[in-house]
Specification:
Blueprint: H1 2-62, H2 65-74, H3 81-95, E1 98-110, H4 120-124, E2 130-140, H5 142-153, E3 159-168, H6 179-183, E4 187-197, H7 220-230
Helix pairs in contact: 3-5
């Protein structure tokens, strides 16, 4: 009788121990699983917000078509040398001068490859610009060459003028201070400029890309670019001193 009384509680305790042994691993992992589920729910909500922002950003671009087209021209996806050559020839024609010796050199370096340590994180999110260098010579009057360089500085294609110069065209028999030079018909200009293009980059994790965290685009920089390209260099209010043509 006493053995039976002891056996029943013993069996109950053993069953509880066995049950807890099977259940406990799942119970101990429950907080971790809850955290994983919560993280997935947050990611799903973040993706939903990003998709809504993308729709809003597309609508913002549709409302600024001209600005979008200008930026696409200014930062082309491919190395479009034809665009640069056509633009330079057109501006030379507008300025009434001739262009010769045009040469294009492709460079493997990047225009913005050097960044400070503090800007490294930001720079990693910015696609690097590839570049090619254009060199050429122009011939004509001083006013025409000056007008050409002014037009080049405002062209709707990302570029940086590395160097430019204007000198007397001695090959045509003129010399500095000669009557031909004074007449403005024996001058030569030389310049070197680098042009950039920006290949597309895929957004591998769109929910972590800063641009998709907002539903609006900031067009302030694009608007300043539009103003710069479409306006010539303003004249100063100060009265000009010295010779208008230093070669006269």
């Amino acid at each position: 009788m006493n053995l039976k009384v002891l056996t029943v509680p013993f069996l109950v305790v053993m069953m509880l121990i066995i049950a807890i042994g099977y259940i406990w691993p799942d119970l101990s992992a429950l907080p971790e699983k809850r955290a994983a589920v919560s993280e997935k729910e947050e990611n799903a909500a973040s993706v939903g917000a990003v998709m809504n922002n993308i729709d809003a950003l597309n609508g913002s671009l549709d409302a600024q078509k001209e600005t979008e087209q200008l930026v696409d021209r200014y930062f082309p996806e491919n190395m479009d040398q034809g665009h640069a050559i056509d633009a330079l020839n057109f501006m030379a024609s507008q300025a009434g001068i001739s262009m010769s010796g045009l040469d294009i050199e492709v460079s493997n370096s990047k225009l913005n490859e050097q960044v400070s340590d503090g800007a490294a994180t930001t720079a990693q999110r910015i696609p690097k610009l590839s570049k090619y260098v254009v060199t050429a010579k122009v011939s004509g009057s001083y006013e025409g060459i000056k007008d050409f360089f002014n037009r080049v500085s405002h062209m709707d294609l990302f570029h940086k003028v590395i160097s430019f110069s204007i000198s007397v065209d001695t090959k045509n028999g003129a010399s500095a201070g000669s009557a031909a030079a004074a007449a403005g018909g024996a001058l030569t200009g030389a310049f070197e400029a680098e042009f950039g293009y920006m290949p597309k980059r895929p957004a591998t994790v769109i929910e972590s890309d800063p641009i998709f965290r907002s539903s609006q685009l900031d067009f302030a920089v694009a608007n300043r670019l539009t103003t710069f390209i479409t306006n010539i260099v303003p004249t100063t209010d100060n009265q000009q001193t010295g010779k208008p043509n230093p070669f006269q």
